[in-house]
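Quick question about two entries, pasted in order.
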Amino acid sequence: MPIPLQVTSRGIPRSDAVHAQVQKLAERLERFHGQVTRCHVTVELPHARHQHGNRFAVHVDLHVPGGDIAVTRDPSVDRSHEDLSVTIRDAFSAATRRLEDQARRARGDVKHHSEP
């Protein structure tokens, strides 16, 4: 079942290429947790007047049974988030890791320490 996806752009014009990349990465999330009921992605350019290039921010909000997962990739100190596709990729990589952790906790695959 495809994940219901909503993509919002702030401070930048809507792009079909960005939407296609977000759609592709959102579909890959189903492999890690098959019960994602909602995915909202916000792509923004928070400060559009920098001297050395603009840095993008991407927010990914996922709703799964057992809780919500929110991942934010704000403009970093380094220059890696000047490329929007890299910022989107980083945000979805972090969301994937959080989904895997959520799925492990739901299955009960977390490590329990024995009493000394």
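Here is the second entry:
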Amino acid sequence: MRPAPCRISLPSSSISVEELAQWRAQGRDFILLDVREPFELAAARIEGALHIPLRDLPSRLGDLKRDGEMAVICHRGHRSDYAARFLAAQGFVRVHNVDGGIAAYAERVDASVGSY
């Protein structure tokens, strides 16, 4: 389920899964926000990610830093793109969608995170 309908016309900034891996390796200060459903975590998970299902995002905005950098991930990148646009519309300025999601991350960066 998605957050309450809203018109989101802001473009979303995107990063590749390789860039995400580089950020992690460099110890870059950012939040990896996983917007998948809880049942999806059993199949694939990136350690250290903050899990907030997309449907809960509107009520959990207070858990996130508005001025902090954030990479948003889901299974294939569609829900996370929506979430990144939603967050940008709410005033979060350094939000990036992870292109291809955790499926691409498992395929191209680290198969140990799991896949489904």
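Reply: The chain has one domain: 13-111. DSSP finds four helices and five strands in the chain. Hope that helps.
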